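Anyone up for a design puzzle?
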């Protein structure tokens, strides 16, 4: 049996692998930013916590072999420590005002489509 083109295919896979993490980080960062904006919009207009929407931030972290995105209220920003109380409420006192979960749900299909598009972009035809 004679196989042709295998070495070229291996080279193309190596190139895709080297571009995968930085390209994935871009997609994750874009998704996190979209979630942040949506979450802030959902929390806008609450008179008792006017600065809370501006406390939402995001970070993208590189870990060995993976990219992690984190979005939510920053406790070091004004009213940021109140994020959990607003999102989940408190027993008997404050009703929940979900912003994060709906924002994540809204972004999920767009993120999945972007990852799929990236896969097709990076993998050889």
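Challenge accepted. My sequence:
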């Amino acid at each position: 049996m004679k196989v042709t083109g295998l070495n070229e295919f291996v080279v193309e896979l190596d190139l895709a692998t080297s571009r995968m993490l930085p390209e994935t980080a871009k997609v994750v960062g874009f998704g996190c930013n979209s979630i942040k904006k949506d979450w802030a919009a959902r929390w806008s207009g609450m008179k008792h916590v006017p600065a809370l929407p501006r406390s939402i931030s995001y970070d993208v972290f590189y870990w060995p072999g993976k990219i992690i995105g984190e979005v939510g209220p920053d406790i070091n920003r004004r009213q940021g420590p109140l994020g959990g109380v607003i999102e989940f409420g408190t027993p008997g006192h404050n009703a929940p005002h979900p912003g994060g979960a709906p924002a994540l749900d809204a972004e999920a299909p767009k993120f999945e489509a972007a990852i799929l598009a990236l896969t097709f972009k990076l993998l050889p035809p």
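A detail worth pointing out: The chain has a mean pLDDT of 90.
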